[in-house]
Amino acid sequence: MNTKTLIGLIAMALVLLIVSSSLYIIDERERAVMLRFGAIEKADLKPGIGFKVPFMNSLRRFDGRILTLDSPPERIFTIEKKALMVDSFAKWRIKNVDIFYQATSGDEATAIRLLSQRVNEGLRNQFGGRSLQEVVSGQRDELMADLISGLNDIVQQEIGVELIDVRVKKIDLPDEVSDSVYRRMTSEREKEARDYRAKGQEQAEVIRADADRQKAVLEAEAYRESELIRGEGDAEAAAIYADAYNDDPDFYAFVRSLNAYKTAFKGKEDMLLVDPKSDFFRFLNDSKGKAR
Q1: CA triplet 226, 228, 233: central angle to 5 degrees?
Q2: What angle do CA 105, 108, 110 make, to 5 degrees?
Q3: pTM for the full model?
Q4: Taking the CB of the first residue and of the last residue of the chain, which one, N or C, has fewer CB atoms within 10 A?
């Protein structure tokens, strides 16, 4: 290999090096800035192929997709000064590459730390103005919407990122207070159970008293009707007896005497001291019942 060929190869290698150092490719999933000796020359480079000055310009690339900030549980107090352990996460992405690079020097860990501080501060402010019932169930969606709306402008101006969503994964009581809270909840439930039982017993007494009253009314009405029927029967029987007596007074007197004998001599040990010639035995002394 002669000298001209060697020089040509070296020149070609230098050209290829310069060209490769001058070209860059930005992926659609990336955000990038161009630096000139460490200072930002161009911010938010567009996706595609671009050119830069070799050895003078350099690129810093960042993930432009939606990222997740999973913060550790934090102790937060409600408006009643009740402590809660809140486990949350946030979705975010880079919005302004220029501000992001200046605030974090391009370090994603620094961005996560700064964003986590802001999110925790926002959660404390939102929880601190609401009761335990509101943050647990009643106003959870409203709380998250207020938090995102209040933090978005701040984090875009300070860190250059967009806060897309913040969600609470879990809310727990601290270990030192959970036992006392559970005991208080148990006592409250027991009190409610006693109240319900007392109301049930009161209603049962009312129902039982009404049933007893209805029973007494029904029995009184039944007794009144039975007495009326019995009276009508007795009157009808008396009328029949009267008619029979009028038709045949001797036969009626005979039947009455037989009934009297049956009643008087019902028991074997019964003893009756009566004059045999008395009117009581007149049908025994004479079949026609004529008195002697």
Answers
A1: 90
A2: 65
A3: 0.53
A4: N
